[in-house]
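Fold this sequence, please.
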Amino acid sequence: MKKLIVFFLAVLCVQIIFGETKIAVTGTSRDNEDAKLCNEAREDPENKWIVYKEKFHNGVCTEEAEKFLDQKACKIALSKDTIGAWKHYLNKHPDGICSEQIKNKIKIQEALKELIELVKHNKNLMEKTYSRLKEMNSKSKEKKFKEQIRKEMEYVKLEIEKISKQAKEYERMLYSYSMDSRHPTKYWSERSKKTMNWNEAKTYCKNLNQDGYDTWRLPIIDELRILIQNCTTTKLDGFCKVSEKKGHLSFKDKDKNCECPIRRNNGGYYSTLGDTDSIWLWSSSSEDNNTDNAWSVNFGNADVDSKNKKSSNLHVRCVR
């Protein structure tokens, strides 16, 4: 009987020992897997950190993974020009490295949108007032009364012009705040009323005094491409290779990715600032291997193209 008891105790001890060993081995195996995947993620962060984070919520490298993914999400969010993209980042990373910056961008953009709506509303009211005055003037037969109405109409017309300029300035500011944050905030001048050659364009911007600023200059082609919309290939960071910052200014860098379908009477479809299909804008970027030409943008088809500096006459938007 004693021998039987001893035998069962021995079996039980073996099971306990092997069970503990198995647990220990399992734990060690997971730790090894954690360390291995962590090292792999450091070698290939773009693809592996997300895999690591999904598998090890409290791993030895979880904090490192979260930091990398936060930075990546931040970069993506700031590269977008929509409130939706920024709010998506805040939803995923409420206390992320860019959370305060993005919150401020959202507040500024929403405030500017409210201002634009208010200004447009006031403009609409003034236009209705002007229409009523015009109607009264046409119906009135008294000369004195007609003269008084005419003065009122002149005043209202001036106010409408002021409000229109104010709305455009707010829209420029709104676009500047919503631009790709990898580039400094840009402010754009009104488009030149006349076309001019390249040298005249540079002088025009150098001498421009607008909105109280005299620090305007002719934009490089990368900056000019910021103004393109609705054409994923030629807007900044699209597939079109032409870029001064990347050193791609040769005419061979222009290919089928440097234009979109032509849209006649497009009402500014390809321009964030409303430049229509008849508008070409100069950049300060000269063409490599042919300094007689400089790069430009055509808003008829969001075309990034090279033009002769002397014989071509284009419009100008200066930047600061």
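Residues 99-178 form a domain with the Methane Monooxygenase Hydroxylase; Chain G, domain 1 fold (CATH 1.20.58). The first strand starts at residue 280 and ends at 287.
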